[in-house]
Amino acid sequence: MTRGRAVLMSLLFAFAAQLLARAAPAQVLSVDLSSDITFESVLGSHDHEAVLRLALPGPPEVEDLGSLPANADLTAFHRLDGGLRLFSLDTFVELPGGVVADRDDVVQYDGAGYAVLLDGSGAGLPDGARIDALGWRREGGVAALLLSTDVTVELPGGLVAEDEDVVAWDGAAWSLVLDGSAAGVADGLDLDGIDRDPVTGVLFVSFDGSGNLNGLDFDDDDALAWDGATWSLAFSGDLLGASFAAGDLDALGVLTSNIFRDGFESSDTIEWSAAVP
Asked: Are 85 and 271 in contact (CB under 8 A)?
C-alpha cells in the first residue's frame, strides 16, 4: 500500500468514526467492526474472522482474539469494559485448549485462553439457529447478554423472536429488548450487529441488507442508532473504503464515555458461570 493511499484510508477511518461519535448521545471512545469478507485498512488486509477497533482519536487496531480457525466467520462480537472479549462464530469449531463451540454459543477470550460463556442449546436456542449479534446490558444489578439470531426462534417461556429482534438472556430467563417490526424494520432484514449505551439505552445496530427506516436509507455496511423512538445514521460503511463497503458489517461494538457508569465497576465479573445457562 502506498504512503498516499495509507494516509487517505487513515483519514477515511477517522472521519467515519467521528460521524458515529456525533450520532451518539455520549462521547464515543471506540468502535469495533467486522465484515463477512476480507477488507483493507491502513493496517493491511483483514479476514472475516477479524475485528478492527477504531479508537477516537488514534489509528485503528486489530482486536486480539487468539488463534481462530480460518474457515470460521466471526458473526458477533462484544468487548466488555475490562477487556474480556465475547464472540460467536458461524460454524462448529475446536479452539486451542480443547474448547469446542457451536454457532449458537458465545465464547469468551481473556487474552490467554477460551471458555464457552453461553451454551446456546442449553439456554433453549433451537437447533439450526445461529447467533449473529451480541451485546451486553446491566440493569438493576442484573447482567444480561443481548443477542439476535439469523432465524425466527421460539425460546423458553413462549417468547418468539424474529431475526430483526433483540433478546436478553440473564442466565435464567429470556426477554425481548427490541421488537424490530414494531420499530419499523422491514420483513426480510436480519439484524446482525448490536451494542447498547449502558446509561442512555440507545441501541447501535446493523442489518444484513439495504433498507429505509422512516425516510433514512441505509446499506448492510452501515450502523444505525435507535433511541426508542427515532432512527439515525450512526456511520456509513462507504467511508471506510470500497473493500469494506463491498461486504456486510456483521459484528459491531460501540464503547462510549458512559463506560463504568451503570453502577458496575468491572464488567469482566460474570454473574452466571461459563457454559452454564
From this structure: no
Alpha helices in the chain (DSSP H): 3-23, 242-245
Amino acid at 3: R
10 Å Cβ neighbour count for 148?
A: 27
Instruction: Dig out the grid coordinates for 174 from the structure.
Output: 429470556
Are 198 and 255 spatial neighbours (Cβ–Cβ below 8 Å)?
no
3-256 CATH pick, 1.10.1740, 2.120.10, 1.10.1510, 1.10.1760:
2.120.10
CA dist 204 and 221 (Å) reads: 13
pLDDT in tens, 172-229: 999 999 999 999 999 999 999 999 988 889 999 999 999 999 899 999 999 899 999 9
Residue from 261, 212, 243 nearest 33 by CA = 243
